[in-house]
Design brief:
The protein is α+β, with helices and mostly antiparallel strands. The protein has 6 helices and 7 strands. Among the domains are: 58 residues, Alpha-Beta Complex (Aspartate Aminotransferase, domain 1), CATH 3.90.1150.10; 71 residues, no CATH class.
Length: 196
């Protein structure tokens, strides 16, 4: 039997992030990962969509090694490097529309937070609408992007307004069929008060 983490209270990694399984993985290749006990499992989400070419693809490994031989961490907040600049130019060429900028981020949650900041800056509007039941990430703001106050928890104090809507497909388009807006007031020293 494969090693499985069963008692999380004794785990050295804090349980602030949920996990789908307690499996301990040793390695992966293609669509399969192998546990520390040698069991093979099919990775049906491909590392949550970040290894679309498969785990340990030879061309990806060769490109990563070539880059690491030159520079391991090119922190974008400190300086520019050529590979991400070339990729940004290529993305602007091939993506439909009038895109002329690319923002690199570490995670989906960071991307969501930057998108919300950009939208608020561009529109000068404080409210944010999120899809009912959608997952936006594990950072405070991304977790607070929900109409479900229980799910939002304490991080909801950081958000001015959040909403959720249900969208149905109608012919070739979409229609918003219901919307719920929750506004939260954050008062220093007091709990967040939801207004509906």
């Amino acid at each position: 039997m494969s090693i499985v983490v069963q008692d999380t209270k004794h785990l050295v990694i804090p349980p602030v992030q949920g996990r789908s399984t307690g499996l301990v993985v040793d390695r992966a290749e293609g669509s399969w990962f192998t546990t520390t006990d040698g069991e093979k499992w099919l990775d049906m989400v491909m590392g949550i969509a970040v290894v679309n070419t498969g785990h340990s693809h030879p061309k990806v490994l060769a490109a990563a090694k070539a880059q690491m031989d030159k520079l391991v961490q090119g922190q974008m907040a400190l300086f520019y490097t050529e590979p991400p600049m070339r990729l940004a130019e290529k993305l602007c060429e091939i993506v439909p529309g009038e895109m002329d900028r690319v923002l690199y981020a570490n995670s989906g949650a960071e991307t969501v937070e930057n998108a919300v900041k950009l939208a608020k800056q561009a529109t000068r509007r404080p409210a944010v609408i999120a899809f009912q039941g959608a997952f936006h990430g594990r950072t405070h703001y991304a977790m607070a992007l929900t109409a479900n106050l229980e799910r939002a928890g304490t991080p909801a104090k950081r958000i001015e307004a959040a909403g959720a809507c249900t969208i149905d497909k109608v012919g070739d388009g979409f229609k918003i069929t219901s919307m719920k807006l929750t506004v939260r007031a954050s008062v220093p020293g007091r709990s967040s008060t939801p207004w509906k």
